[in-house]
Amino acid sequence: MIVVLLGPPGAGKGTQGSLAAASQGWIHLSTGDLLREEVARETPLGREARTYMDRGDLVPDALMVDMVARRLREIPQDQVLLLDGFPRTLAQAEALEKAIGGGAVALALYFHAPETVLTARLMGRGRSDDSREVVERRLAVYRETTEPLVAWYRDRGLLREIDADRPVSAIQEEMIEIVRNMLAAQT
Ligand code: AMP
Fold first, then answer.
1. pTM of the model
2. 104: nearest Cα among 66, 76, 77
3. Contact at 8 Å (CB) between 53 and 42?
4. What is the per-residue DSSP string for 128-159?
5. Quick one: how far is CA 156 from the chain centroid?
6. What pLDDT is stored for residue 103 in this prediction?
7. What is the pLDDT of residue 127?
């Protein structure tokens, strides 16, 4: 069962995804983490992706879809997969449906918080793409390119909204409950 973690940079998708995976035995797959690994290992993909990441731009769809499709093939279908940071464009959402078949995304959890909160969190994080200029670019790219996915998943009846401007533990509890309920409904 695939659960898409949707929301702007700084909303806490990564934190929430890795906590839930650790406590529930689910799989957390972060495309940002995968890319940072490729960058660190200086693979051809990493070298290409880096130029986009450093600017706060999205890595081209073709590279992303390829990388994610390869990973998805390794993950058993009966596992709960928290997909963090993918899809980020409509083309990626469509490619995901094609790769796994329509209906395989059971839920899209939309983590939202005011932009002032997001900026403050991102600036306090100290990642190499967390300088003010790049943070602003990433938020703008999110609004223009990724935010339309909120309506896309809502139209399909898959969207659940989570107020991400709360303590980590409160968000975690709600997230786990939503996913567990969906799991129970499916079996
Ligand atoms: P994240 O850790 O999710 O904030 O991702 C960090 C950076 O990796 C982003 O700013 C993008 O440059 C790149 N990235 C991660 N996921 C994707 C994706 N699905 N499509 C395009 N670029 C991505």
1. 0.96
2. 77
3. no
4. TT-SHHHHHHHHHHIIIIITHHHHHHHHTT-E
5. 18
6. 67
7. 86
Testing ligand 1's pocket by substitution, the residue of 47, 67, 88 carrying the most ligand atoms inside 8 A of its CB is 88
Q: What residue's CA is closest to ligand 1, atom 2?
A: 32
Give the contacts of 29 (CB within 8 A, at least 6 positions apart): 68, 71, 75, 81, 82, 83, 84, 86
Distance CA 163, CA 110 (A): 8
For a pLDDT cut of 90, what percent of the chain falls above it?
88
Measured in degrees and rounded to the nearest 5, phi and psi for residue 28 equal -110, 120
d(CA 167, CA 77): 32
Q: Which of 6, 30, 35 to mutate to test the pocket of ligand 1 (most atoms within 8 A of CB)?
A: 35
Whole-angstrom Cα distance, residue 115 to residue 153?
22
pLDDT tens for each residue of 122-156: 998 888 888 899 999 999 999 999 999 999 999 99
Closest CA to 131 of 142, 119, 143: 119
- Say whether pLDDT at 102 is over 70: no
| Cα–Cα dist 15/9, whole Å | 12
